[in-house]
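Subject: for your reference before the review

Hello V.,

The reviewers asked for a structural picture of the protein, and I figured it would be easier to keep everything in one thread rather than splitting it across files. Below is the amino acid sequence we used in the manuscript, unchanged from the supplementary table.
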Amino acid sequence: MAHLPPPSGQAAQPGRPLLPFHQLLTLSIYWLGIQTIWGGLNTIIIPGRLDDMSRETAGTLMAIIFIAGAVAPILIQPTVGVISDYTVTRWGRRKPYIVIGAANPSRKTTSSSAPMTMYGLRRPQRV
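And here is what came back from the structure prediction:
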């Protein structure tokens, strides 16, 4: 079992796991879902969409997409972390950014036709 440091102001009890098994299982299931989504995206969807665009430049475009996907978190996460360190709200420092980060993609996905165009689905044309 994993041992996490105690929250500030609390003493750790020696030999006692601080993260129960059900929480470890919940985190593992969450990360399995994330890895499944990214695995499918990186191995099936992105190469297929790039082949549809241009077979000659598919390798170059895939390299650019993967490099951008690696560089973006390196720049964005520390930047938002510094901004949130200086944020003072009644919700705390981090929670407003978590809510915005969770609500924004959900709103865009459910309120637009993005799911249809992202996966190559089209609405049937009326004759």
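For the response letter, the relevant points are probably these. Helices lie at 21-53, 58-85, 95-111, 114-118. The first helix runs from residue 21 to 53.

Happy to draft the paragraph if you're swamped.

O.
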